[in-house]
Amino acid sequence: MSSNRRLVALMTIKFLTLFARDIYKTAKVYGCLGMSFHEEQHGEGPIHLACETDGQVIEIYPGLEVSSRSALFGFEVANLEDAKRNLVNAGVVIVKDIAVVSDARRFIASDPDGRELFVHEAK
After folding, report:
1. pLDDT per position as a tens digit, 76-114
2. Whether residue 10 has pLDDT greater than 80
């Protein structure tokens, strides 16, 4: 058991790949939360978008099988009202409005492919 704990302590997620019907529309939503994407292409693979932050990469690839109700992505922002306003102005659906839960202010939004975004304010 102790060796498993050691492995978990050393584990780091390096990249996350999302598939989207419209990669640019999806990137615009995540851009409202402070991410900046650029185009990439590996060899003859599809053109996709990537954002690197603190050694972690989020990629958005074109695809038709995109929706996953089994994942919730969490984001921390400096100002919750600004983040919500940016998302609403970009046409994003707010699933649950700003609320205080366990001493944290948060809301839940939905990206263009139905993935839920848990957005909470930094303390």
Report:
1. 999 999 999 999 999 999 999 999 988 889 999 999 888
2. no
Q: Which domains does the chain have, with CATH numbers?
A: 2-121 (3.10.180.10)
Q: Which strands make up the sheet holding 38-40, listed edge to edge?
A: 15-20, 56-62, 48-53, 38-40
Is there a contact between 23 and 62 (Cβ–Cβ < 8 Å)? yes
Count of residues for the chain? 123
pLDDT at 68 over 80: no
- Distance separating alpha carbons of residues 66 and 112, to the nearest angstrom: 10
Report the amino acid identity of residue 66. V
CA distance 123 to 77: 9
Task: Please give the model's pTM, rounded to 2 decimal places.
Answer: 0.82
- In the numeric block, which tokens belong to residue 58? 């989020």
